[in-house]
Design brief:
385 residues; 17 helices
C-alpha cells in the first residue's frame, strides 16, 4: 500500500510547531535561577508566544484563504528558525520574551492553515482520522520539545538546546516543502474583505462558538498542568533536575498513540457523549496529581495528556466540518481562542501557585474542566456524529 505523503507532511507540520512552542517548559526552573526571577515572571516567556498566536491567528487564516495553503505553511516553517536562533542568544529575560513573541507570530500560519488544508483535501468522513494523525505529530513534537531541551539543558546548557531545536525546525521545513503537494480542494476567498465577512459569520454560529470555548479550556489546562508541575517537582521533596523534568513529558506519548483513534471512537459513541467521557477522565487525572507519590503524579499526567489530545482532535476536526467556507479563518478563530486560553493558563494558575501552591493550581484546572463539560453538554446536544 502506497504511503500518503500528505499525511507525513501534516504530521511533520504538527511535530515542528509543538517541538518549539513549549520548549522552555522543562527549563523554566533553571531559567528562573539563571536570570534571578520568580515562577510567575519566567512563565512570561510561555505567555509571550501564546499571546502572539492568539493575536494573529484569525488574520493569518484570512490571508491563507486568499493566498492558498502550502505556500503559507512552508514560508512560516522556514521563517520560525530566526526567532529560535535569537532566543538561544538572548542576553536577558526581556530579550527572550521578545524573541518568543516573534516566534508566536509565525506559528499560526503553520498549524491553523494545516488544519484547514486537512479539511479541504480529505473527504469529510476522513477528516477526523487525518486530524488525529496531525495531533499525533503535534503530541510527539510536544513531548520532544520538552524532553530534548531538558536533557540537553543538563548536557550543553539551555542555549545549546534552543540552537539544536532551530536546526531540527529547519530540517522539518525542508521536509514539508518536498512532501506536501499544492492544494487541490482549496476554494480561494474573493479578497481579504470577503474573508473578513466570512470570519464574522463564523462568530454567529453557536456550534463554532462552543467549540472555540472548549478549545480555550483545552490549552488553559495543558499549560497550567505542564508548566506548574515542573515547579512542583523541582521543589522539595522531589528536587527533579532539568533532565528528569523533561522526562515527565514522556506522558505526552499517550496522546500520540490514542489521537489517531478519535474518529473510530467518535463514530461509536457520538461527539457529545465521547467528549463528556473524555472530560470526566481528565478530571480524574487532575485529582490523581494531588497525591504525593511520583507514580500517581505521572499517571495523572498521562490522563491529562491523553484526554487533552482527544479533546483537541475532536474540536479541531469539528471546526473544519462546520465551516463550509473560509475554513482557514474559522480555524484561525479557534486557534485564537485556544491560545488565549493558553496565555491565561500560564498567567492565572501562576497567581494561584503563588498563593496556594500546586493544590490551588489544580483547583483552577478542575474549574475549567467543569466549564468545558457544561459547554459540551449544552451545545453539542444536536451535533452530528
Amino acid at each position: 500500500m502506497a504511503v500518503d505523503r500528505r499525511k507525513i507532511a501534516v504530521a511533520t507540520a504538527g511535530f515542528c510547531t509543538f517541538l518549539t512552542l513549549y520548549s522552555p517548559q522543562a527549563l523554566l526552573p533553571a531559567l528562573a535561577r539563571e536570570f534571578g526571577v520568580g515562577a510567575a515572571e519566567i512563565s512570561a516567556i510561555m505567555t509571550a508566544s501564546t499571546l502572539a498566536i492568539a493575536l494573529t491567528a484569525p488574520f493569518t487564516g484570512a490571508v491563507a484563504d486568499v493566498l492558498g495553503r502550502k505556500r503559507v505553511i512552508a514560508a512560516a516553517m522556514l521563517a520560525v528558525v530566526v526567532p529560535l536562533t535569537g532566543a538561544a542568544l538572548a542576553p536577558d529575560v526581556q530579550a527572550l520574551i521578545a524573541w518568543r513573541f516573534l516566534q508566536g507570530l509565525l506559528l499560526p500560519p503553520i498549524f491553523a492553515v494545516t488544519v484547514a488544508y486537512i479539511g479541504d483535501e480529505w473527504p469529510p468522513a476522513q477528516v477526523a482520522g487525518v486530524a488525529g494523525i496531525y495531533i499525533a505529530g503535534s503530541s510527539l513534537g510536544g513531548f520532544s520539545g520538552r524532553f530534548v531541551p531538558g536533557l540537553l539543558g543538563d548536557l550543553i546548557g539551555w542555549r545549546g538546546a534552543f540552537l539544536t531545536l532551530a536546526g531540527v525546525s529547519l530540517a522539518g521545513a525542508v521536509t514539508l516543502a518536498l512532501l506536501l503537494p499544492r492544494e487541490k480542494g482549496f476554494v480561494r476567498s474573493h479578497g481579504l474583505s470577503a474573508s473578513a465577512r466570512q470570519m464574522l459569520r463564523h462568530l454567529k454560529d453557536p456550534q463554532l462558538l462552543a467549540t472555540y470555548g472548549i478549545g480555550f479550556g483545552v490549552l488553559f489546562n495543558f499549560i497550567a498542568v505542564f508548566t506548574y508541575v515542573s515547579f512542583h517537582l523541582a521543589a522539595a521533596p522531589y528536587h527533579f533536575s532539568s533532565t528528569l523534568l523533561g522526562a515527565i513529558f514522556l506522558t505526552y506519548l499517550v496522546g500520540t498513540v490514542i489521537s489517531p483513534m478519535t474518529g473510530w471512537l467518535m463514530a461509536r459513541l457520538g461527539r457529545r457523549r465521547f467528549i463528556l467521557a473524555v472530560i470526566a477522565a481528565w478530571m480524574g487525572g487532575a485529582v490523581l496529581m494531588l497525591a504525593p507519590p511520583i507514580p500517581a503524579i505521572i499517571a495523572g499526567l498521562m490522563f491529562c495528556a491523553g484526554c487533552g489530545m482527544l479533546c483537541q482532535t475532536i474540536s479541531t476536526g469539528y471546526v473544519t466540518e462546520i465551516a463550509k467556507e473560509g475554513r482557514s479563518s474559522a480555524v484561525g478563530l479557534y486557534v485564537t481562542s485556544f491560545y488565549v486560553g493558553g496565555s491565561m493558563g500560564a498567567f492565572l494558575p501562576g497567581l494561584a501557585w503563588e498563593r496556594g501552591g500546586w493544590p490551588a493550581a489544580i483547583a483552577m484546572v478542575m474549574a475549567m474542566l467543569a466549564a468545558m463539560a457544561v459547554i459540551a453538554a449544552l451545545a453539542y446536544r444536536d451535533a452530528r456524529a
